[in-house]
């Protein structure tokens, strides 16, 4: 069973009633012309970022 790309979740704290969870696949190191959201499906949001990953970690 796949998860939804966008989910509304009940908050466990008093600060807010709900939070929004976004399921994203981020591709680093693309050209600046491709920056941004490239596609959205029921299960995932694809995002391209021109910055390269540093030491294999997210930046």
From TrEMBL:
This is Uncharacterized protein. It comes from Calycina marina. InterPro entries: YggU-like_sf. It comes from the Eukaryota.
